[in-house]
Amino acid sequence: MTETSTRLDSLRRARWELAAMAGRLRTLEAKLAEEQHHSEEMRKERDRERRRADRLRGSESYRLGFGLVSLIKDPVHSVPRLSRAVARRVRRRPGSVPVQPRRASVAARRLPVHLYVVIGLDADAVREFVLTLRQRLLVSPDHRPVVMTDNPSFSLLRDLGVLLEYLPDQVTWQRHRPDRPWEDVLADRVSRLYHDHDTVRTIIVDRSRPPTLADLLR
Length: 218
What we know:
The chain has helices spanning 3-57, 60-73, 75-90, 123-139, 170-176, 182-197, 213-216, and strands at residues 113-118, 144-149, 163-166, 199-204. The chain is of the alpha/beta class. The protein folds into two domains: 3-31 and 111-216, no CATH class; 40-90, no CATH class. The longest helix has 55 residues, at 3-57.
């Protein structure tokens, strides 16, 4: 590989990394908006729970429970009050259902997702990278991989057990859509994958030196 082609590859890689960073920034901005919305929803939920607690404190059930505690502490003075509370509870209209506390759902712990951007590699090189990535996960299964490639033969690699996403290569895209820069498409695609898979990290694979197993384990 000549010095000129090496420089061109470095420039392309820099553009791809910038596009991936732009996609990541879009995702972070969207997440910030979602967090702000979630914070507002949590505030509303807190206010609803406070109102429910206030209603519960004013209910017969709460007063009866308070009376039982008072009976234990001071049985002589609490018996008349407790008797009246029991009588009122018995006279309640039939069919009323006590308030049931809602159970909070607990989300199952999931491994984080890493996005691998594999651009400019032929089918054999992509397959070799995916196999190396599988070996790395057997050694240390600490994340779930998503591999984005511009190789049109990606569908032949689906049997390897790694999630593959396709992005048209730069030449094909510019031939069909010269009105939109390919780097913008890459940034949008990365942003969408970050959103869809809740990705936490992006790795740009160097096509001139695909990572070895030792590289991936670092």
